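so im writing up the methods section and need the Transcriptional regulator, AraC family record in one place, dumping it here so i stop losing it
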Amino acid sequence: MNSQLIEADERLATVFSHYYCVQQGPQDAPLQQQLVPNYEMLLVFNFGPAISGSLGDAPYVISRTAVLGPLQKTLTYELPAGADLIVVNFTLNGFYRLLRVPMQELKTQDIHNPDVLLNKPCFEDIWSQLAQMTTLADRLQLLNEYALTYAAPADSTTNSMIESIPYVNNTVVEPVKLLATQQQVSARMIQLTLQKQLGYSARELVRFLRFKKVLTFLFQQPTPSVDWLSLVSEYGYHDQSHLIKDFQQYMGISPRQFINQLAQGGMCISKPGKFY
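--- predicted struct ---
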């Protein structure tokens, strides 16, 4: 397998974080991978055989283009021989800025056709242009040009909210009230903005970001022997059952099952965002 993680153009760094580009040779054995939850949106362009997998318990098949997310469950997929795909990994509100689709209309267990979301054959046309190109550089240049043309500028309120995430994540204060005070707007406006542009509440995001820190620690120090009580204390969980509940919520498995799967390989975690 030939895979590359390519950073976004600096001009687009607040829209998406990176491209994930993968190719499998025609004789390569099928390869199963798992991406742990990241609460971000993915836009997939597939130029090879159909890709099958599941998002949580929901199965899917990607033929050409697809939108997945916000990823609140584990994404499992199998790369067949001859696989050739580009995945655009959006920032928290980057998908909304590019497609302007209210995020609360999307369901996390669903896979979406982007042209159905837009009600026009935009991404099918882009796929056709990309499929004719012979180099990855040309493909990424076309995608960059499209995003630069159509991505809406971020509004100052949402920008400030996202920049405040590290502070919200480290406080016991109700996150919406804290953000409302910082931005000098109503709590209701904060709630509506987050649901529209991110697809979930500040409370949901704070809960997930804590769990992502646990996952990041475990990825960086994979070992079958984990001091779970130390993790509970380090990351602010009430007790071990509280941490187990988050593993069940996001991963669908227990902490020990996760460690076993991590040791077997084939499990990935997304790169950190700028503010989360």
